Amino acid sequence: MDLFHVLGSGARFDKKRFNDDISLFEPQKQKKPVKNVVNDQETQASLLQEIDFFHNSKSAIIETLGKKQLPNERSTGNNEDDTDDSDENEGENEIVDQDESTELNSLNTQDNVKKFRKRYRIRVYGTDIPNPFHSFSDLHNKYEFQPYLCKNLDSAGYKQPTPIQMQAIPIILHGRDVMAMAPTGSGKTLAYILPILHDLNSHKKIGYRALIISPTRELAKQIYIEFKKMCVGKKFKICLLTKATAATQAQDPHLKQKFDILISTPLRLVHAISQDNIDLKNVQHLVLDEADKLLELGFLDQTDEIFAACSNVKLQKYLFSATLPSGVESLANNFMKDPIRIVVGLKNAATETIKQQLIYVGEENGKLTAIRQMIQEGRLKPPVLIFVQSIERAKELFHELIYDGINVDVIHAERTKAQRDSIVLNFRQGKIWVLIATELMARGIDFKGVNLVINYDFPQSIQSYIHRIGRTGRAGKSGEAITYYTKDDAPYLKSIVNVMKDSGCEVPNWMLELKNPSKESKQQLRKKPIKRKTIDTRSNYDKKKIKRKRYEF
Ligand code: ADP
Ligand code: MG
């Protein structure tokens, strides 16, 4: 029953009730292989002739057959992608002698600080950069953090700070603006929660002093919960802005003075500002979580309005994301004051604990065949998150998979807020095994136990890829990500190959030799997804038959 072991704590199953469903996940005797699915090197090589749009099939075949798997070589071609960061990464893999670690922890010389940063793969850019700290006890000893914070860290089981926390916390505490880029699941939330709570000191009745913006409701709620966890024993008042909380604040002007911290999505907040229900003039800490998303065209106007409403001269701004493309960085430089840029790990790379795979499925319907084969072979170990490119396709895939006898659900913007909340909760508790999602779920959401992310539809940008697969492999755990690609996606394959290579995955040589897509074609894909055939593999008759069979029991 290793299916249940992988779910971790919180997952409770009624095994008797779900016996039929469970049996579908158990490994079965070898089934006939599905033609479309390619996951071994030789088949991939033989496919190359068919998918000749790579332009280099001949040499690739020879390479693939000659050298089995390839180490994580750097690309020789010109890398146009946002991941190109070769200068900055120099000396990246140098290992600091473990014997030096005690000495380094004292961080008393600039040389030690440099070695310490190298050891934790922290790179910093800017002027007068404060030193990182080494252990949570330093926060108490050096920065005089109140005991409640140390206690709450302990209760949460956070023993050591993560690299982004080591470096971002002192910078924020020194009153500086920050642009922080660190891998998915590496503890960015706590990196801003701790210094903010320390600085706020205690509850005051002067209105909001910290504001956190998140692109989705789901992430805003998660941040709210994390704040609450760290506030135990202290009387801070935190507001998660919803239609209801905004309405009550409109009715009672005194409520506006009551809260210390506000967490909101941009749209909800802009609406409240325009209705004069929210006063942001005392805000001193402004966080854009998933900053690159919030600075994309769709959100930019709203983010701009929020900035305008935060009029306090002491305002500090913090941008956090796993991906901050250079365009976003230069845009951010316009509104930040002498910011310090932190990059943990490789720029725009995926988390290293995630095993990444690209699987060629030929035509659209090869994807469903591939998933069904995984179910039959017991390889689909829940919880699994499946990403598709549109609400329409999410619904279509859901209608296919419910007939496969797995506990599947679907989340997208057209579901009600109550439904979305309950789906997230049920998925966290292991009641939903397979969750089909649109880009809505791609960022920030911390599902600790997710074993596998399937990109059913090829992501439209490398940022989308990094965030989607970052729903697994969180907080140092291992995870797996599978990306299906069809002939139509093949021209964009190299972008993902670059991310895989940079995050230490083994990639076959022929993939490394693919051409990078042009800037124009990448921009085009970002704007508009590839047109795909409807997801529908069963005839209506089949569906009825299977449905009837399931309900007979
Ligand atoms: P990110 O925002 O970088 O994607 P999160 O802030 O959501 O990551 O954190 C990912 C997970 O790591 C969360 O479950 C969080 O509770 C956990 N976490 C954060 N900091 C620590 C720490 N210092 N030690 C252990 N776990 C941590
Ligand atoms: Mg986050």
Describe the structure.
There is one protein chain. With 553 residues, the chain is α/β, with parallel strands linked by helices. It has two domains: 114-344, P-loop containing nucleotide triphosphate hydrolases (Rossmann fold), CATH 3.40.50; 354-548, P-loop containing nucleotide triphosphate hydrolases (Rossmann fold), CATH 3.40.50.300. Helix content is 41%, strand content 12%. It is built from 24 helices and 14 strands. An eight-stranded mixed beta sheet has the order 1-8-2-7-6-3-5-4. It has a six-stranded parallel beta sheet with strand order 9-14-13-10-12-11, with helices on both faces. Strand 11 (408-411), helix 19 (417-428) and strand 12 form a beta-alpha-beta unit. The protein is globular and about 60 Å long. The structure holds adenosine-5'-diphosphate and magnesium ion (MG). Adenosine-5'-diphosphate is lined by residues 158, 160-162, 165, 182, 184-190, 446, 448, 474-475.
Q: Give the radius of gyration.
A: 24 Å
Classify the beta-strand content into a percent band. 5-15%
Helical amount:
40-55%
What CATH architecture of the largest domain would you give? 3-Layer(aba) Sandwich
Number of domains: 2
Shape: globular
Biggest sheet statistics? 8 strands, mixed
Total number of strands: 14
Mean pLDDT over all positions: 81
The largest beta-sheet arranges its strands as 1-8-2-7-6-3-5-4
List all distinct small molecules, including ions and cofactors, that are bound in this structure.
adenosine-5'-diphosphate, magnesium ion
Give the termini distance in whole angstroms: 23 Å
